[in-house]
């Protein structure tokens, strides 16, 4: 999966080559950043909604992807343009889109069970290492991220760790949970990087549909193997699952898939760190649960790290 750095390019490219990640024009970049803000707000709702939903964690992950796929299906399969975009996907693009779906399923399948094995603080802190994994994987695939990207990623992750805290309790159960959360962060990095690669040539709708379909199928298998209950919920639970699908999946992840082509995988992955303070802000507005004073400097550190990476990518 060769990956090149973000840079401004001309309007033409040699036949047989793939377009690199491009730095969009200022107006398009402002649009991407606005959509990124909406996406972060969407995924920030996932924490409070998951905590309030009376269903197994794996089942919640399955239903948010299955409902999203069902919601996209009429638009993709019945309208001429999306159907043509889907039909134009070549074998390589289809396989990469399915691989992204597998990585997203792995992210959910690894991280959510970790919450039951280790502390929430440790799980969240370790899963938010996604930007570090993204930068490492970019380096391994031939891209040389500027030093500012490394620095910005480290600063942003440090802010997230400071915000969430880390439980240093050592036990076999806690260590297993920590390992799962760390692997979940790495899986999220693979998902973002593959998405950036696919979005060079594929439309957001076609890629997202194949990705979510694969994720839903794999999570369904995981639910059946784990014996997670997939039904028998109350009407309130189904409404919360629907809200989670619309907010976190269709608005959150789908818009991330939309902007990753222009903003690049580094900016996109680091922006996900804003999910934790975003969830805290929403909890304050929705539930009256205000974060401690120490949360605000940590948020400032995350934003500083994101700004460093955006500046480096623009250069």
Description:
The chain is mostly helical. 75% of the residues lie in helices and 0% in strands. Helix 8 runs antiparallel to helix 13 and helix 9 packs across helix 11.
Keywords:
globular
Give a short synopsis of this structure.
The protein has 315 residues and is mainly α. 75% of the residues lie in helices and 0% in strands.
SSE order and pairing:
Layout: H1 26-44, H2 46-52, H3 57-78, H4 80-87, H5 91-114, H6 120-127, H7 130-140, H8 147-164, H9 172-198, H10 204-226, H11 235-271, H12 275-287, H13 295-314
Helix pairs in contact: 1-11, 1-12, 2-11, 3-4, 3-10, 3-11, 5-9, 5-10, 6-8, 6-9, 7-9, 7-11, 8-13, 9-11, 10-11, 11-13
Keywords: Membrane, Transmembrane, Transmembrane helix
Organism: Streptomyces marincola
Transmembrane segments: 33-55, 61-80, 92-111, 117-136, 148-166, 172-194, 206-231, 237-256, 268-287, 293-310
Spell the H/E element sequence: HHHHHHHHHHHHH
What form results from the Cα inertia axes?
globular
Largest sheet: none
- Return residue spans where pLDDT drops below 50 for at least 5 consecutive residues: 1-23
